[in-house]
Amino acid sequence: MRLFNWRRQAVLNAMPLVKPDQVRTPWHEFWRRFRRQHMAMTAALFVILLIVVAIFARWIAPYDAENYFDYDNLNNGPSLQHWFGVDSLGRDIFSRVLVGAQISLAAGVFAVFIGAAIGTLLGLLAGYYEGWWDRLIMRICDVLFAFPGILLAIAVVAVLGSGIANVIIAVAIFSIPAFARLVRGNTLVLKQQTFIESARSIGASDMTVLLRHILPGTVSSIVVFFTMRIGTSIISAASLSFLGLGAQPPTPEWGAMLNEARADMVIAPHVAVFSGPGYFSDRTGVQFVGRWFTRCAGSEN
């Protein structure tokens, strides 16, 4: 017996100790794969730069984006004084593009956040309880999916009225069913796992099972889809503003700025030239990061 205990102790002593900071969680593995992708890291740094510029846009902008008027340089092109030129009302385009980034990014992010929050809740309920909960929620999602997103957003804004707040609500509404279906699918898979049955067997309530066991298992999918959805929401919000249903003049929103630039396209094309690339830059950066998130998460799964 003593010999057996001695051998067991020798084996235990020979085993390497694993420190807590050396344990690789799924998030560690995800980050390790992501940072190996140099293009993805470059896109992520670019997106972070856009976010920082958007947050501090009103301090970075050399002029007031709404109340500054240079009547001596109407429709003038780029210069040392006005890097992106001046529009037909004498407003500095560079300042308006910076502040417009703040408004457009905020509209896209808030819309997706609202849609993700509501959609996640509905998806958890539909996937966990099934039955009439599942049928009711999924039929509502089917109805929303039956309409093109931008058409549904136009209908919502037409009912609620124009304004950036109503645009956020409209874009959030057509984001809800996508998140609901995603979370429902994950929930249906997770609720069949043995650790869920173990939690139920020890008397865990439905709320505890949903919030402490199922929801954490869906977070990675939600984050990836959230990132992919931001670019679409930015374009949708800007499209509504371009149609005159979103931000109203003199608010410097990218879609509204492009709409105003149409009238002076021939005599002052620089207004549209410098107002438009914001869409391409932020949407491309966010979509690029989102796709790499998807690849990293997919390879991990």
From TrEMBL:
Family indicated by similarity: Belongs to the binding-protein-dependent transport system permease family.
Pfam families: BPD_transp_1, OppC_N
Protein location: Cell inner membrane; Cell membrane
Keyword tags: Cell inner membrane, Cell membrane, Membrane, Transmembrane, Transmembrane helix, Transport
Coiled-coil region(s): none
Gene3D superfamilies the record matches: MetI-like
Tagged with keyword Cytoplasm: no
PROSITE patterns: ABC_TM1 (PS50928)
Organism of this sequence: Escherichia coli
SUPFAM superfamilies on file: MetI-like
Gene that encodes the chain: gsiD
Cited NCBIfam families: PRK15082.1
Entries under InterPro entries matching the protein: BP-dependent_transpt_permease, MetI-like, MetI-like_sf, OppC_N
Location of the ABC transmembrane type-1 domain: 101-290
Name recorded for this polypeptide: Glutathione transport system permease protein GsiD
CDD domains: TM_PBP2
Domain of life: Bacteria
Transmembrane segments: 40-61, 103-129, 136-158, 164-183
Gene Ontology terms for molecular function: dipeptide transmembrane transporter activity
Main subcellular localisation: membrane
